[in-house]
Amino acid sequence: MEPQRFMVRCAVHLFLIKDGKLLVEKRKNREYHDKEYDVIASHIIGNESVIDAVIRTAKVEVNIDLKREDIKPIQVMHQKSNPYEYINYFFIANNYSGELKNNDPDFCSGIEWVDFKYPVDNMMPYINEAIKNYLEDPYNHFTYYGWDK
Questions:
Q1: Burial class (CB in 10 A: 0-12, 13-18, 19+), 28
Q2: Among 72, 95, 111, 149, which residue is least crowded by beta carbons within 10 Å?
Q3: 140, 142, 143, 123: which is closest to 15 by C-alpha?
Q4: Omega into 73 within 30° of 0, i.e. cis?
Q5: Count of domains forming the chain
Q6: At residue 32, does pLDDT exceed 80?
Q7: CA distance 50 to 19
């Protein structure tokens, strides 16, 4: 008998950059890292590619449109976050259209531009780790977080 297959959660994260600044969202009414900064991010829903998930999330969360050719993959992170494991896909984009707007005021108290540096104050720890990894070595496309080293 084959053992039950393990299920992993997947999420997309966007580093939206403008003039050396990173767009962040302040989490609100969340069980996980409430009142900390996050980047544009979402779980991948069924039957959508990671690129489609980034495009959907940017529109839903901050009211912007992204072109597929402007979205660049920069990192995949295998994260252990008890009781779950995640595969996090990180992307970067410098171009977008539309007017930025907080479309999710029930779960986001605001959006703002911060310096794209490490660390970003009050950022969710695994996002800061992804920022650090990218800034230190933009060619290191695979990382871990939350695992004993």
A1: middle
A2: 149
A3: 123
A4: no
A5: 1
A6: no
A7: 26
CA max distance for the chain: 56
pLDDT digits (tens, 9 = 90+) for 104-126: 999 999 999 999 999 999 999 99
Q: Which of 59, 29, 23, 66 is nearest to 42 (CA)?
A: 59
Question: Does residue 122 come out as left (phi exceeding 0), alpha (psi in the -120 to 50 range) or beta?
Answer: left
Q: Which domain holds residue 51?
A: 9-145
Do the domain assignments include residue 88?
yes
- Read off the amino acid at residue 106: D
Give the mean pLDDT of 52-59. Answer: 98
What is the model's pLDDT at position 4?
A: 79
Tell me whether residue 100 is in a domain. Answer: yes
Mean pLDDT throughout 63-71?
98
Decide if pLDDT at 45 tops 80. yes
